[in-house]
Amino acid sequence: MAHSPAALPPGTLEQGCPIRVEHDRRRRQFSVRLNGCHDRAVLLYEYVGKRIVDLQHTEVPDAYRGRGIAKHLAKAALDFVVEEDLKAHVTCWYIQKYVKENPLPQYLERLQP
Questions:
Q1: Any residues with CB less than 8 A from the CB of 84 and at least 6 apart, and which?
Q2: What whole-number distance in Å separates Cα of residue 69 and Cα of residue 39?
């Protein structure tokens, strides 16, 4: 019996595949492949200064919402900011929410007003 994406447990994709975030530095985006490689969830960012990124937008297709995919994207982006010793301006409402729910010092000290 085939499962629709919404019927699978959080943190997994079709056939129980774990969520894997990829970082494309050239396109300035983090992404998760969904349904093979046809659909993607993405988090977009731009450099707005030499060491400042704007975390602009997170988008997960409707059929995959509520599975923690955006949470994985937000964590990957914030970990990138920490690892690269950058500052972050957060335009995306979802990432703002993620930081409020996960107020880790290494994230908070890198946020720009």
A1: none
A2: 13
Cα separation, 41 vs 67, in Å, equals 11
Q: Which two tokens stand for residue 34?
A: 């969904």
**Which residue is associated with the tokens 């010092």?**
105
**pTM of the full structure:** 0.85
Q: CA 97: distance to chain centroid?
A: 12
Task: Give residue-wise pLDDT tens across range 20-78.
Answer: 999 999 999 999 998 766 789 999 999 999 999 999 999 999 999 999 999 999 999 99
Give phi and psi for 40, each to the nearest 5: -140, 145
